[in-house]
């Protein structure tokens, strides 16, 4: 039998600097216009990029809207969530 090696938990500094994704989930509550405006304002998307993300989330159920570190993405995630937009960090 092979022995499994246990992985140690990542350190706080590793979590803060590792690459993550901000994922937008489809919902039936918010309008496309509101989602698009929020992505432009909060995530610094251009209008075409914001529209593509909103449409992708609508038809596929979710869409990666931004990649970056936890420090970069956490404020965006919090602001989108405070507006009632379903996002998570993964």
Task: Please give a structural write-up.
With 90 residues, the chain is α+β, with helices and mostly antiparallel strands. It has a domain at 30-89. The chain contains four helices and three strands; from the N terminus they run H-E-H-H-E-H-E. The protein has a three-stranded antiparallel beta sheet with strand order 2-1-3. It is elongated and about 45 Å long.
Regions with little confidence, pLDDT below 50 for 5+ residues: none
Order of helices and strands: HEHHEHE
SS field, number of helical segments: 4
**Mean pLDDT across all residues, rounded?**
91
| Helix content bin | 40-55%
| Overall shape | elongated
Helix/sheet category: alpha+beta
Percentage of β-strand residues: 15-25%
Number of strands: 3
- Report the end-to-end length measured between terminal Cα atoms: 33 Å
Q: Give the neighbour order of strands across the main sheet.
A: 2-1-3
* Main sheet properties: 3 strands, antiparallel
Alpha carbon gyration radius: 16 Å
In short:
The chain has 90 residues and is of the alpha+beta class.
Q: What tags apply to this protein structure?
A:
90 residues, alpha+beta, three-stranded antiparallel sheet, 4 helices, 3 strands, 50% helix, elongated
Topology:
Elements: H1 12-17, E1 20-25, H2 32-43, H3 47-60, E2 62-68, H4 70-82, E3 87-89
Antiparallel strand pairs: 1-2, 1-3
Helix pairs in contact: 2-3
């Amino acid at each position: 039998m092979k022995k499994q090696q246990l992985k140690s938990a990542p350190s706080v500094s590793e979590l803060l600097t590792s690459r993550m994704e901000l994922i937008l989930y489809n919902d039936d509550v918010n309008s496309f216009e509101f989602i698009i405006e929020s992505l432009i304002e909060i995530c610094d998307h251009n209008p075409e990029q914001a529209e593509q993300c909103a449409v992708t989330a609508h038809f596929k159920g979710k869409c990666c809207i931004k990649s970056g570190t936890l420090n970069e993405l956490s404020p965006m995630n919090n602001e989108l969530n405070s507006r009632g937009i379903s996002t998570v960090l993964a």
